[in-house]
Specification:
The chain is α+β, with helices and mostly antiparallel strands. Helices cover 45% and strands 16% of the residues.
Length: 268
């Protein structure tokens, strides 16, 4: 039986939402869309050859700006793995400090397709697309990212790569996430990747966050939203990671649930 393709999009417009604490924050949403039957689909037989994930040892050829972003993702996750191999002495630290959304090696199988997407979308990855092949997972990025800061482009690609991993988990019967939970985890992967950046890279993003204007880059606005949630007073700052993680996921889940587009796409 053929499977409908699912296009997971990250949109530019920031949606304003009032959280339980009464703070108004902006959040950039990723929209999961179930495509019509006429959309490209992949057969189960073809997907059997895909579910092993990425076995390449070098990256696919990409335009320089996207290769740099993929290199940054790979390097920062690899650096984190090496650090955690040395210092993550307990299971608790493993959970808190390792980047677990996808392996660094997945960057070797990502093909960035640049196009003017339109409709305010930044990028997307399509589940069950006929364009997916063994060791080849295409992510479409809006052409506006051609001149973006490498770090901000890496944040967008991190979100979409999390959906690639979710797709692979689906093929391997490891995926038990709902439509909304998939989006929550993709957003969380971005803030987790942000914490793995170098001090200089983080400082650069923080400077952009602190600019006094309402026209922040969507990746900067998204990060600021999640950081604001982590600092909303619900949990002790920096001392109760379990509380902070639950609070962040809960607030993101609620924001997604309250959005009319997600109510339609997730059949709420």
């Amino acid at each position: 039986m053929k499977k409908k393709s699912q296009k997971l999009r990250l949109f530019l417009p920031a949606l304003l939402a009032v959280l339980a604490v009464g703070v108004i924050v902006a959040l950039i949403f990723s929209k999961q869309r179930t495509q019509s039957i006429s959309e490209p689909v992949a057969s189960p037989i073809a997907e059997l050859n895909i579910k092993d994930g990425c076995t390449r040892t070098t990256r696919l050829e990409n335009d320089p700006q996207y290769d740099r972003a993929l290199s940054l993702i790979q390097q920062r996750i690899d650096d984190n793995e090496k650090w955690c191999d040395k210092y993550c002495e307990t299971g608790d630290y493993e959970t808190k400090l390792r980047f677990h959304h996808f392996p660094a090696s997945l960057t070797n199988c990502i093909k960035i397709v640049e196009e003017k997407i339109g409709g305010g979308a930044e990028g997307y990855f399509t589940f069950h697309s006929e364009d997916i092949k063994p060791n080849y997972f295409p992510i479409t990025v809006d052409s506006s990212y051609s001149l973006s800061d490498d770090t901000l482009t890496a944040l967008l690609i991190t979100h979409e790569m999390t959906h690639v991993q979710q797709y692979l988990d689906t093929l391997n019967s490891k995926d038990n996430l709902s439509c909304r939970d998939k989006e929550v985890e993709a957003f969380v992967s971005q803030i987790d990747f942000y914490t793995k950046l170098s001090n200089e890279e983080i400082s650069s993003v923080v400077l952009k966050m602190n600019e006094e204007n309402d026209d922040k880059h969507p990746q900067v606005a998204m990060l600021k939203t999640m950081i604001d949630i982590n600092r909303d007073g619900t949990c002790p700052l920096f001392t109760d990671d379990e509380c902070s993680q639950k609070n962040l996921r809960s607030k993101l889940f609620q924001l997604i649930s309250d959005n009319p587009s997600y109510q339609h796409q997730c059949e709420l």
